[in-house]
Amino acid sequence: MTGFIRSTIREFLSSEALGGVVLVVTAALALIIANSPLADRYFAALQGYIGPLSALHWINDGLMAIFFLMVGLEIKREMMDGHLSNWSRRILPGGAAVAGMIVLALFYLAFAGGQAAQGWAIPAATDIAFALGVIALLGPRVPASLKVFLAALAIIDDLGAVVIIGLFYSSGFSVGDLAGVAIVLVALLALNRMGVMRLWPYLILGGVLWVFMVRSGIHATVAGVLVAFCVPLAGKTEMLEATESPLHRLEHALLRPVAFFIVPIFAFANAGVCFAGFSVQTLLAPVTLGVASGLALGKVIGIFGAVWVLVRTGLAELPAGANWAQVLGTATLCGIGFTMSLFISLLAFDTAALQSEAKFGILAGSLFAGIAGYLVLRLAKAGRGEDVLES
């Protein structure tokens, strides 16, 4: 099983890195179209209805539920059978992730208060596709241990974002539909306890769970994570080959569709910001400054500061073969918050003006973090250590 997990991690890092390139292209295409003569058709198509929901709604609540299913599978695998499987492995990326989310929220709230304060979580999660895409450009300059650290931190970030969405960005609860959610969730857990190894019962019940979630008031994408946590990692005997594990099979099946189809479509649908009327006042708007500073400054200060404290106090060690300059560069890359930041901005604000300001902040902060992180890692003296992904 260990060899399969290592192979899966290599494939994950590779697909996420290439997925980052696809993401850049689709986001740039959305920006171009949103500021071209095709803009009206672009926005009208997104608002057009397909059945009971608009196209944008299907993308953000439907396709992104599959993205969150993938996130949930990664979280469960790493927590139970991967690089977050014990507390000694969790403490460094976990402490860094928590500190990063706290400090970035403080940076955001220093600029944006009142109604805009509800956007405090917009910079919360690192976009692993973009971050690994930047690291891929640096090749062997970045030790694999730092890539694993970045992936683990991003996974914990995603878990934090899921909790934040469930607690702070859900409203208008329906008691009947929440009861439906509970019943379906119990059925999923029962399948797990009975050792059901076929995927289709979990996926069918997952679809039912999603419908109840859409109507319950809890954001529908949380259904993806709940289903993922119910998919078995191994059978009753715990002696299955990794390739037979339902979780590994489903994760493997979703890697490329999520990286090259679902996330790019989400980016294309949501990154289209019209620059008409853009001014210095827009750039200096509280939400814009709050989001940009949270990503560009709050993340790196929180993450690097937490790593420094944990290492200096002896509670953790630096990733193998890495030095402090490389840790600083990696922490800076964690300020790339594109996908999840866009998603939370749609939940935080109802008005187009605030959503646009948030998107400007996301683009500015992520661009700064990506360039600065690349330069720091490029100029950092390479550390010396073994590749933790090698046998």
Can you tag this structure with a few keywords?
15 helices, single chain, 391 residues, Na+/H+ antiporter like fold, mainly alpha, two-stranded antiparallel sheet, disordered C terminus, 2 strands
How would you describe what is shown here?
By secondary structure, the protein is mainly alpha-helical. The chain has one domain (2-170, 219-379): Up-down Bundle (Na+/H+ antiporter like fold). It has helices at 2-34, 39-47, 55-81, 87-111, 128-138, 144-168, 175-193, 200-216, 222-230, 246-270, 280-283, 286-312, 324-333, 338-348, 352-379; strands at residues 49-50, 53-54. Helix 1 (2-34) runs parallel beside helix 10 (246-270) and helix 4 (87-111) packs antiparallel against helix 12. The longest helix is centred in the first third of the chain and has 33 residues, at 2-34. It is globular.
Shape: globular
Measured as a percent range, the helix fraction is: over 70%
- CATH topology name, in short, is Na+/H+ antiporter like fold
Estimate the mean pLDDT confidence: 84
Q: Return the structural class.
A: mainly alpha
Number of helices: 15
The total beta strand count reads 2
What is the second-level CATH architecture?
Up-down Bundle
Percent of residues in β-strands: under 5%
Quickly count the domains.
1
CATH domain class name: Mainly Alpha
Helix-strand string: HHEEHHHHHHHHHHHHH
